[in-house]
Design goal:
Length: about 230
C-alpha cells in the first residue's frame, strides 16, 4: 500500500491534515534556513564588537552597523548608535532591541503550536467518523458470519487518520522544541553580550564624568623682579 492509497483510505480528515502538514513543513524549512544563517555568526559578531569597544567606541559602532543583517548586530547597534546616552538609556535601548529580535525569532511558533494541537484531534475525528460508517452497516444477524470481515477492514482503515495525525504532531513538536532551544540560547547570548557592553559603557561614562569634574589647574605666575 503506497502513500496515495493510504491517503485515500484515511477518510475526509486526511485533507485538513494535508493542509496542516504543508503549513508545518513550510514553517520548519523557513526556520531551519533562518537559524542556519545566524547560529554560527552571532558569537563572532559579539566578540568583535566587544573587543573594539574596549579600544574605541566608534569602531565598535561601525562593526555593529556592518553586521545589521544579523540579530546580534542590530541588537548591539541599537545602543551604540545613540549619541552619548545616559547609562540607563543605553541599557533600555539594549533591552528593547533584544525583545524585538527575540520576537522575530519566534516567528512560526503559533503555526507549529496549532499543528501540534489540531492534528491529533483531526486524526481522532477521522477515526471516529470511519468507525461510525463501518459499525453503522453491521446488523445483529451478521455478527457470527463472514460478512463482518469488511467491517473489520473498515475499522483498520479508519485508524489511518489517527496515525497520520499523531505522526504530524510528533514531528512538529520535535522541531518546535528544537527551535525553542535555539531561542533560549540566543536570549542567553544577548543577555551576556548586552551586560558586558553595558558594563564597558558605564566604565567609560564614569571615567568621562570624572575627567569633566576635575577643575583646570590655575596658571602659574612667574614673579618678575623690579628693576631699581
Amino acid at each position: 500500500m503506497n502513500i496515495t492509497e493510504l491517503f485515500a483510505r484515511g477518510g475526509i480528515a486526511m485533507w485538513p491534515l494535508l493542509f496542516l502538514s504543508v503549513l508545518a513543513l513550510g514553517t520548519i524549512i523557513d526556520r531551519i534556513w533562518f537559524w542556519s544563517r545566524i547560529l554560527t555568526k552571532e558569537r563572532e559578531v559579539s566578540g568583535r564588537v566587544l573587543e573594539a569597544a574596549r579600544r574605541e567606541w566608534s569602531a565598535a559602532s561601525e562593526i555593529a552597523q556592518r553586521s545589521n543583517k544579523l540579530p546580534m548586530g542590530r541588537f548591539l547597534y541599537s545602543a551604540l548608535s545613540l549619541d552619548r546616552p545616559d547609562p540607563e538609556v543605553f541599557r533600555l535601548a539594549l533591552e528593547t532591541s533584544a525583545d524585538e529580535e527575540l520576537t522575530v525569532m519566534r516567528k512560526g511558533e503559533k503555526v507549529l503550536e496549532a499543528v501540534i494541537a489540531l492534528s491529533p484531534m483531526l486524526g481522532l475525528l477521522g477515526t471516529v467518523w470511519g468507525l461510525i460508517n463501518s459499525l453503522g452497516s453491521i446488523r445483529l444477524s451478521d455478527l457470527a458470519s463472514d460478512s463482518t470481515s469488511g467491517t473489520v477492514l473498515g475499522i483498520g482503515e479508519a485508524l489511518i487518520s489517527t496515525a497520520a495525525g499523531l505522526v504530524l504532531a510528533i514531528v512538529s513538536l520535535a522541531f518546535y522544541r528544537l527551535f525553542q532551544g535555539f531561542i533560549f540560547g540566543q536570549a542567553k547570548v544577548f543577555r551576556q553580550s548586552g551586560s558586558e557592553l553595558e558594563l564597558l559603557y558605564r566604565q567609560a561614562w564614569s571615567a568621562s564624568r570624572r575627567r569633566a569634574k576635575v577643575p583646570p589647574k590655575p596658571p602659574v605666575e612667574v614673579p618678575t623682579s623690579n628693576e631699581s
